[in-house]
Structure formats: structure tokens, C-alpha cells
Amino acid sequence: MSVIAFRHSLRRLWALDKFGPGLRFFIALSLCTLWVWLFGRMDSLIPLYLGVIASALAETDDSWQGRSLSVSVSLVCFALMATAIELLHAHTLWLSLYVVAATFVLIMLGGAGSRYASTSYATLILGIYTMIGLEQHGPGELSFWQYTPLLLCGALLYGVLSVLWHGLFAQQPVQQSLARLFRRECDYLKAKSVLFEPLRNMNVEARRLELAQHNAQLVDALNDCKNLILQRVSRGRTQAVTHRYLKLYFLAQDLHERATSSHAPYQQLADAFFHSDVLFRCLRLIRQQGDACQALAQAIELRQPFDYGAGHSQALDDLQAAIAWLHKQNNPEWSSLLHSLRAVADNLARMDLLLQQASNPDALSLHQDSGLFDREPKTLREAGERIIRHFTLKSGLMRHAIRLAIAVGAGLLIMHVLAPDQGYWILMTTVFVCRPHYAATRTRMLQRILGTLQGLAMSWLLFQFTPLLWVQALFAIAAGVGYFSTRTSHFKASTAFITLMMLICFNQIGHGYDLFLPRLLDTVAGSLIAGLAVFFILPDWHGRRLHQAAATTLRAHARYLQHIMLEYSQGKTDDMQYRIARREAHNADAALSSTLGNMLKEPGHFRRQSEPGFRFLLCSHSLLGYISALGAHRDNLADAPNYPSLNREAGQLADTLIRLADSLESSRPVSSDCSEENEQSHRLATLPVGDDDHLRLLLNQLLLISQQLATLRTLASELTAVA
Asked: How confident is the model at residue 347 (pLDDT cuts 50, 70, 90)?
């Protein structure tokens, strides 16, 4: 391998989003292992490892200053939790009451924000780790506050590494997040291009459903990227590279709005232009732009120049020539659809320009209002107010806190009644498996049990063929890195790795084989407790709140439409309020898709609305596409003739969406009478706008929106009938 190829391989390895955290975890575990082997303190290996894991679970992306504060707060919380566990460990009743109360309090504290949630959850896990470690020692073997310092040392070690890493490589997470974002853009564009295949009797619904799922993933990537950049844009001390990434983020937002735009029903385009190559040219250009997003992602990831290339311009010219040829045919049946095709071509041309500008992001200018909306609390008072708002059984967080606290209490009761070996693993399994919703919990139950079996099998093979303890210690480090790299993406694999790591650690002090059966039985018991808890204790069924998710979606779409029309009246500004409305509309669409996906995993009784629910999602996603097209073509039309009439019609459309949302949210019956919607559609279809292309596009999109409302009303009527 040449030196250049080797350096390129290293650069690609460095660009992997799991490499940095995995390397930090590897260094921390290696230092812990080296220390215990050098000083012969094998009994310290388990608490050091567990402290490292707890500190890693509490990690959130931030600047090094923010990480320093976060690590300090986490260490204080860890110290208080572990010390309390040590004090109460000999008093079974008081320990049980404390653990149950701490579970409820810590879960509720997570309602203040994502940072609080990470620290609270890690603190709860560390408390269980403390009980697991203390169980290895008989009464009198450890003096007070002998075990806790070891946990804190492990946590401090990883915390220091995390602070140093974020200080040295502060921009790496943003690069990786932006790369993921543009890869999601690529996936969406490739899925969108399929809709332009000129096929008769095309299964548009299946393809639009797939497109909605891709959009949900793209929205998640946008939100994640925004949160990372937000931590680095403050107090006027932003680095130039951060401004570059901010500009690329805004560029990705604009691409997303244009990519999600729909200008006409795709089946109508396929039927009308079946014998033309114009739709193939649209498909080809969209796929090329998707490839460009993929290339841009790789350029950001590897910190290399991005070259958009010249071939895309030729594809765009060919598309516009094909549309011009169709226009010369003077076919009156194509008139309306040709206007839509010209709007599609104009939209793709602007996307082409955006991707060209990505070659030199430093030359881009930021919006006049380039702020990002921070959803995290700014003060402790604001955090407290957020937590207090969750103290109602209507809050999913409150129900989950009660459910998990009862599940932990049940696990403690089983432990003390049956007195199983290593019983605290029941609690650990319950906390890891019990999720706020049934679908996620059911999936984790199976994955946890299968992962544990795999981990036990790997441990048995390792003990059989590698009896040397120092070799096993190396495998423990590798298993720890494997756990940390897969804990958020592959729960079964992470369970297998953590099982292997823990059994190797216990085998270092002579208890490895004795823990195989207890580990398996405790995992099954903890999983069953979690499953029963989420099924019977204040269950949060997605099937029962589908109408609420639908209401949120319609209300967000209405707000997005209102902000778009405001920009048509005042001129394009892309201010924060507009961007918030756009993001909330896409977030609501993604949440509706997620709700339906989770509902399919629930018992049959709760899936009875799945058919109208998915039809509602398809109709809602089509509606969002038509609204997004209005946003993509924003221009100041306040002085244009007939614009006041169009503006009033848009306001009526938004009001109709809001009324439907109110009825869905309160479960009031929705009338299936669509006469008002049909009357508005007829009114829009006959409204004269002359030859002004901007007004015609506005009229066409409003007409498409109005044609969705009758279907939405019918589906809303079905959802409220059984809500």
C-alpha cells in the first residue's frame, strides 16, 4: 500500500462518526486495565470500568467549556448517588425505597432538556452499577466510601478525555453530522426521483409512503445538525469554520424545502407525458443532484474540496429544451401540467445553483436573521418550570417515570424474595429495556435476550480457548469499545458486547463461569418485568393517540402555510419564525410517520386505525409537498393583481386545517360533508390570474392544497369515529 493510499485510509477512518467516541472509550478502558495490572488491584477493575461507562452515557456534544461543566455536574450526581447506595446497602427496606424514589425523580429531571436527561439516566445506571459492585463483597469486606471513589475515578478519567477531545477536535462532530445530513438528502432525492418514472398504473401510494419515511430520517438529521451547530454559535466568538458549517446547514434547509416540493399529482404527469422523455430527464437530473449531495457529504467528512461539475448544467438544459418542445405542440390538455413542469424545472434549476454554491460555502451570505432557535432551558428556573409542566398524567414522561419506578420496585421485590445470584442485573435489564412505548420495549426485550445469549456464547468460547487472563483483558477492552460503538444503533450487538466485557471482568477475579446462568435468568426476568410494566402500568398506546398526532400535523401545516403567505405579502426573508414554522411542519410529519410505525407493533386492538392512518399520512405528506412548493417559490406578490383574493383563499385553507386539527385533538366528530372544500376548489379553479407565472404557480398550488382537504376531512372523520 502506498503512503498516499494509507493516509487516505486513515482519513476515512478518522471521518467515521463512531471512531472518535470509540477511541476515547478505548483509551479510558486501556488506562484502567493498565493501572490494575501494574498495581495488582484486580478487584478495582469492575468499578473503574463501570465508572467509565456511566460517564460515557452522560456525555453530550458541546464545547470544551460546556463539557467541563457537564462533567462536573455528572460527577457530583454520581457521588451523591453512589454514596447514598453505600450508606443504605445494609438496610434492605430503606435502600429499596430510595432506589424507587430516585428512579422517579431522575426520570422526571430529564424533562428539563436533553442534557439533563443524559445526566439523569447515567446517574440511575451508575446507582445500579454501585449495587452490582457491592454485591460482590460480603459484609465488612469494604469500609465505607471505598467503592464509590473507584467509580468516580473511572468517570473522571473518561470525563477528562472527553473535555480534551472536545477542546482539540471541536468541529469534528459538526462535520460528521453535516455529512450524515447530506447523505440523507441524497437518499431522499433518489427516492423522490422514482416518482418521475412515466409508468401507467404506478403504485404511487407505496412510493410516497417510502418517501415519507425518508423525509422523517432527513428531518432527524436536520435537527441533530442544528443542535450541534447551536452549541458553537454564541457570544460572538464563533470561529470562521463554524460560520462555514452554518451556511452549509442553511443551504441544506433550502435544499430540503425544494426537494420536498410537489407541483402536480405524479400519476397525472405520467399519464399525460407517457410518450415523452421529459419525465426521464427530470428523474435523471434529480438523481444527479442526489449523487452531488453524496459527494458533498464525503467532501465535508474528509475535509476535501467539493466540485459540483459541469454535467448537471447539460442535464438541466436538456430538461428545459424538452419542456419547450412540448409547449410548441399546443396541446390544450397539457396546458396546466406544462405550467407545473416549468415550475419543476425552475425548482431543479435553483437546487442546481445551491449545489454549485456549496463548492465555495465561504462566499455564501447568511440570512439577515441567521439565529437558531435553542430549545434547551437557559436558566435553572426555566428548567424547573419545564419539569413542573410534566407533573400530569397526560405527560408521557410522567407516566414513564411512574411505570419505571414501579418496575424497579418489582425487580427489587423479586430479588429479596427469591434471593437470586447477581440479582441487581434484573434492575439493570429492566432500566435498559423499559422504554416509554410498547413497540420499542417489545423490540428491546427480544434483542436483550438474544444479545445476552450471544455474549454468553462468546464468553464461553473465550474462556475455553484463551485461559490467559491478560489476553482476556484485551478482549474486555475490545468488547467495551464494541459496546460503546453500537449502543445507540444496534442494541442486540451492544448487549452481547457488554455481557462479554462484564463476564471477562468478573473472570479476572475468579467468578466468570459462575455468572453464566444468573446473567441469563436475570436478563429474562428483567425483560419480562419491563414488558409487563409497559403493557399494564399507564400504557402509552400509539393507536390511541393517532388522532392527536394527526391534529398536530394539520396545525403545523396550517402555520407553515400562514408564514409562507406572509412572505408573499412582505417579501422573502427566511427569518427565524418562518424557519421554525417550516421545521415544525416537517417534524410533525415525521412524528406522524413514527406513530404509525410504532402502532403496527402494538396488539391488534390498537391497530384498527392503521388503514385510515396510513392514508391520512399519505394525504398529509402530499399536502406538505404542495405547501413546500409555495415556500420554494416565494416572491413578493403584494402588488400583483388578484393577489388579495389568493391571499384570502390561502387564509381560508389554513383556517380549515386548524378547525380539522381542533376537532381531531378533542376527539369531536368531524362532519364528512365536503361541500365547503369542493366549493373552494371550484372557486380557485375559475379564478383568473392572467399570464403572470408567479400568480399562476400560487394559484395552482393553492388549488392542489384545496383538493386535499376533502380527503383529509373524510379521513379525519374516520379517525375521530373510533378515537
From this structure: very high
Q: Which amino acid is located at 723 in the chain? A: A
C-alpha cell at 459: 464468553
Burial (CB count within 10 angstroms: exposed 0-12, middle 13-18, buried 19+), residue 231: buried
Tally of CB atoms within 10 A around 475: 16
pTM: predicted TM-score of the whole model, two decimal places: 0.90
Note the pLDDT tens digit of each residue in 13-49.
777 778 888 889 999 999 999 998 888 888 888 889 9
391 vs 231, residue with greater confidence: 391
Number of H helices, E strands in the chain: 27, 0
Contacts of 334 (CB under 8 A, 6+ apart): 272, 273, 326
Burial of 46 (0-12, 13-18, 19+ CB in 10 A): buried
User: Which H or E run includes 304?
Assistant: none
d(CA 286, CA 284): 6
Q: Are 428 and 125 in contact (CB under 8 A)?
A: yes
SS3 sequence of 244-261: HHHHHHHHHHHHHHHHCC
Joined together, the cell numbers standing for residue 179 give 455529512
Per DSSP, 542 falls in state G
CA angle 369–60–237, rounded 5-degree value: 40
Going by C-alpha positions, the residue among 121, 587, 123 that lies closest to residue 375 is 587
| DSSP for 636-663, written as a single string | --TTSTTHHHHHHHHHHHHHHHHHHHHH
Q: Which residues have C-beta within 8 Å of that of residue 315, sequence separation ≥ 6?
A: 281, 284, 285, 288
Identity of the residue numbered 394: K
CA distance to 285, 355, 667, 671, 679, per residue, from 554 (Å): 32, 31, 14, 16, 21
- Cα distance between residue 107 and residue 305, in whole Å: 45
Position 235 scores a pLDDT of 45
Domains and CATH numbers, the chain: 1-170 (no CATH), 172-363 (1.20.58), 403-540 (no CATH), 543-721 (1.20.58.220)
Alpha helix (H) residue ranges in 358-468: 380-389, 396-418, 424-433, 438-465
Q: What is the pLDDT of residue 182?
A: 95
Q: What is the pLDDT of residues 469-514, one digit of tens each?
A: 888 888 989 999 999 888 888 999 999 999 999 888 888 776 666 7
Nearest alpha-carbon partner for 689 in 626, 644, 653, 641:
641
Rounded Cα distance, 163 and 156, in Å: 10
